[in-house]
């Protein structure tokens, strides 16, 4: 029930593995949020599973390639770091690279942390390459994700899903019939009077959550006391021809602004806390900080950060915005849709309802949402924007108990323990910690075993090697032009 990225991702994925009849109901009268233009590398797994040709996908969605996220001003005006995909440096058998870097920094000869990440160096140079396409023979792979037009992606997946037999019904949902004892959704009624029954319902109706909200246990867990931004305004503008291979996140007095370069335009948006910035101020800030005149009037979006206590109840599962909302600071929105679809396919019930499977699903998905939440909170809490009320409040907030041990452990020793299927790796967490100026008090004792001269040479060669490799790569615009020829 509902289209957009969530609905058509689910329909395309399920129709690729089953001949069971699938119906998707959506209304052209109801728009979608449609600003989820930035992704993380896991989207490539989803596309591969559907046997999507990358060239076809890039052409159809006006996609560009993304090597990471650049954070500007988060640790104070002028601060700048990239949370790059992939490895930073070369880890040893017993410790991650950042432990050696910490010792080199203390000795005074280590460069900036990002100088030892191939994705970081390439992103800052505006370069893009992959094995067989512009990557020097001796180069390691650079993990990449995409920027794309979310509405075009939904259309692209719709064609694939309908080719696999998915039936689309145009209609606006005006009623939901439930069995509250089961609990289960029995049917939905459209404005036309048509009644649609089903064995299993995916609620992709956006913030409204028209189906899941009818069932007991779907109450909302509000996380806005940790993530207080509650508003956004978005407006596209023309591209100047330069295509940066990264998403930009630039902090301002009451939140941050995104910049996402596509082939045909640049996506822009300002995220803010309405208690510290008015809508008019946000609009003025957005328009003053984009590349050119907007192609459309800024679109207002209101949200409350959080998630439903249960995403799967009876024979109904919430996917996308109907399940909850986490601001797009780390481009996780589409990944969380993808994760829910993947878990559903792995745990698909034989009957419409299976309480044991639903409980297991809810445990796994809730844990994933919570860990992404904590990663986002870290960005706000660790800010260095002293003297601005919004940021001062974020820096002094009481943190969730799931995040405190991670911060304390890293601050003391530089260690980080990744828990089970946690989305963000030790490399990602360390880039954000260090990018925000959180330098551990010590480092792994085995880092002292490498002679100082050897450590200096190790770091120098690595940094120089990445710079030389990147110097021979094409620009992103050149790379995309060659790919689509």
The N- and C-terminal alpha carbons lie at a distance of 38 Å
| Main structural class | alpha+beta
Q: Approximately what portion of the residues adopt beta-strand conformation?
A: 15-25%
Q: Strand order across the biggest sheet?
A: 4-3-13-14-15-12-16
Report the strand count.
20
Shape verdict: globular
Q: Mean pLDDT, rounded to whole units? A: 94
Low-confidence stretches: none
In DSSP terms, counting alpha (H) and pi (I) runs of 4 or more, how many helices? 14
Fraction of residues in H or I helices: 25-40%
Main sheet makeup: 7 strands, mixed
Please tell me how large the radius of gyration is. 23 Å
Task: Describe what this molecule looks like in 3D.
- It contains 14 helices and 20 strands.
- It is of the alpha+beta class and 485 residues long.
- The strands form six sheets. The protein has a seven-stranded mixed beta sheet with strand order 4-3-13-14-15-12-16.
- A hairpin with a 4-residue loop joins β8 and β9.
- α1 packs parallel to α8 and α5 packs across α13.
- The model has no long low-confidence stretch (mean pLDDT 94).
